[in-house]
Specification:
Layout (H helix, E strand, L loop, with lengths): L12 E2 L3 H8 L4 H27 L17 E5 L9 E5 L8 H21 L11 E5 L8 E3 L4 E3 L14 H15 L7 H23 L9 E2 L14 E2 L8 E2 L3 E2 L15 H4 L5 H14 L7 H10 L9 H16 L3 H12 L6
Parallel strand pairs: 2-4, 4-6
Antiparallel strand pairs: 1-5, 2-3, 5-6, 7-8, 9-10
Helix pairs in contact: 1-2, 3-4, 4-5, 5-7, 7-10, 8-9, 9-10
Length: about 350
């Protein structure tokens, strides 16, 4: 692996926030609490494993000899409800779809992510150099999460009570793989505001991958992260809403979506690495406001500005919201001059309460 911006952080990134699993783990109904507790325990193990891998060193992964870096190299594995990674190989690049819909969705989602980064931003895979994309499905029993462990994607099947199969929302796949892009570029520290920016960037590009795949404009998109993931019994639409943070769910089991939309409601907490999944709602909403103001395809202008900042080399590992905001202003001006793009960026950050200089 190529080290960028000071070397990799030992980051283990899951799509379901700990505060949701914590709430579930306390439920009196064991059908709900047991799988949540088991998921939290597994996440803790995987987080420790990720940290050790960073210390010891992960194996270098490169495209097959002679393979084109502008083509995806996907491999899907089946854990068969065990936890040893990667599992048994069940589909490789170019092979036909099989009978397992989960395998097929994972394969398609990896491809959609690769395509968005290549076609919109001329990036060749996650690392920019044709990194093979590996994913494991059917991980553990009733595992309520999906994660990027620094080397590959892993998907649980959900417990069927609260969460369904984690390959269903394509933006979840794009979200987790974008943690890999951040790992190879800005390498944002996974705590506090830098961690919330890390999570927000994954939501931004996860949403753009979904919009690109569906051919949606900013006005047509639902701006939800994880739509289709919640089981029918849950009162909610998704894990997060970029359009209206704090409204994704309001459920008697999960509680109410705690995401703020502006700095007025910034949450100070020591949990969830300083609220990385909560306060990400603020930069998420800023991006939505920019994309909505500009209209058209969000990946073309708003997404280009955010991508320029993520990969431009000036975004520091410990960047705060204001640092990121100032860089988006500079990026909008550099790419689009003094036009509507710059004005949209300035106004969006003002609306969420982040002052740019």
């Amino acid at each position: 692996m190529t080290k960028t911006n000071g070397g990799f952080e030992p980051v283990f990134c899951t799509v379901v926030p700990p505060h949701i699993l914590d709430k579930l783990a306390q439920h009196e109904d064991s059908a709900l609490s047991a799988s949540a507790r088991k998921t939290l325990e597994r996440d803790a193990y995987e987080r420790t494993h990720r940290r050790l891998t960073t210390v010891i060193g992960a194996p270098t992964v490169a495209p097959p000899a002679g393979a084109a870096t502008d083509q995806p190299h996907r491999t899907i594995y089946d854990a068969r409800h065990h936890t040893d990674l990667p599992g048994r190989k069940v589909r490789s690049e170019g092979s036909a779809p099989g009978k397992d819909a989960t395998v097929n969705r994972a394969y398609a989602g990896l491809g959609a992510t690769f395509e968005l980064y290549l076609k919109a931003y001329e990036r060749q895979s996650i690392d920019g150099n044709g990194l093979p994309l590996d994913a494991t499905v059917h991980f553990d029993n009733d595992y309520n999460n999906a994660f990027w462990n620094g080397e590959q994607m892993v998907f649980g099947d959900g417990d069927g009570e609260i969460f369904l199969d984690f390959t269903i929302p394509i933006d979840v796949i794009g979200h987790e793989l974008t943690h890999g892009v951040t790992q190879y570029t800005a390498n944002l520290t996974y705590f506090g505001q830098p961690g919330a920016l890390n999570e927000s960037l994954s939501d931004v590009f996860g949403s753009l991958i979904k919009q690109y795949t569906l051919g949606q404009t900013a006005a047509e998109a639902d701006w939800l992260i994880g739509a289709g993931l919640l089981a029918p019994r849950v009162t909610g639409k998704a894990l997060r809403s970029m359009k209206a943070p704090g409204t994704a769910y309001d459920d008697d089991v999960l509680g109410k979506d705690p995401q703020p939309a502006t700095m007025d409601d910034f949450v100070r907490t020591g949990r969830d690495n300083g609220g990385v999944h909560i306060n990400s709602g603020i930069p998420n909403h800023a991006f939505y406001l920019v994309a909505n103001a500009l209209g058209g395809n969000a990946w073309e202008k708003a997404g280009q500005v955010w991508y320029d900042v993520l990969t431009g080399g000036e975004l520091k590992k410990d960047a705060l919201f204001v640092d990121f905001a100032n860089l988006t202003v500079a990026a909008a001006k550099a790419r689009f001059s003094e036009g509507e793009e710059l004005q949209a960026v300035l106004k969006a950050w003002e609306q969420v309460g982040v002052r740019t200089t």
